Amino acid sequence: IYFGGMNGVTSFDPREFAKDTSSINFDFRISSMLWYNKAKGEEENVLPDFMKHGELAIEPNIDYVTLSFALLDFGLGSPHYAYKIEGLDKQWNSIRENYVRLSNLPYGSFKLWIKAQTSSGYWNNSMICVPLIVEPPFYKTWWFVLLLFLGAVAIIGGIIYLRLRQRINQLQRMNDLRVKLASDLHDEVGG
Question: pLDDT truncated to tens, each residue of the chain (191 aa)?
């Protein structure tokens, strides 16, 4: 573009201007959240529960979770995405699809972060954060392990108690037999 002015002609190329990437903030939202429940054998929509509680508690009978999201960027081209599970991933995982499928996560609490790159190549300011709580099966919980330990202690204690009672009863019978033999022997010798 050329402009004439008092000091001559001024020209510039608009492509050479740096874009202000701090103002890029398109709407970026979760569009669906499904998980596969092995116990029921079907996919279930858990987005309403997530919206209500603000976190996703993944139960032991859940095989995988699929989160779909959308960046409302209507420019030419398609947006790119990246996700990172805070506590597991050290760097961002780049993806082209607008969904993430999570499976085989270790037990514990994590945060899933998802960010989007606009069609013009700039990262959107807003990110999606999904707090995840992966619950262990009941047999891997601390209270079940404690219960097993106390049960084992009670069983071992009971076995030791019964063995001691048997030994005491056996010694008591032997003592009674000795006293009876000694009494009979005393009576025989006295007779």
Answer: 788 888 888 887 766 655 655 567 788 889 999 999 888 888 999 998 888 988 998 888 888 999 999 888 776 677 889 999 998 889 999 998 889 999 888 888 999 999 998 877 888 888 999 999 988 888 878 888 899 999 999 999 999 999 999 999 999 999 999 988 888 888 888 77
CB 155 within 8 A of CB 162: no
CA gap 66, 44 in Å, rounded: 10
Greatest alpha-carbon pair distance for the chain in Å reads: 153
Name the residue with tokens 């995982």: 93
pTM of the model: 0.65
User: What is the DSSP pairing of strand 128-134 with strand 56-58?
Assistant: parallel
Q: What is the DSSP letter of 105?
A: P
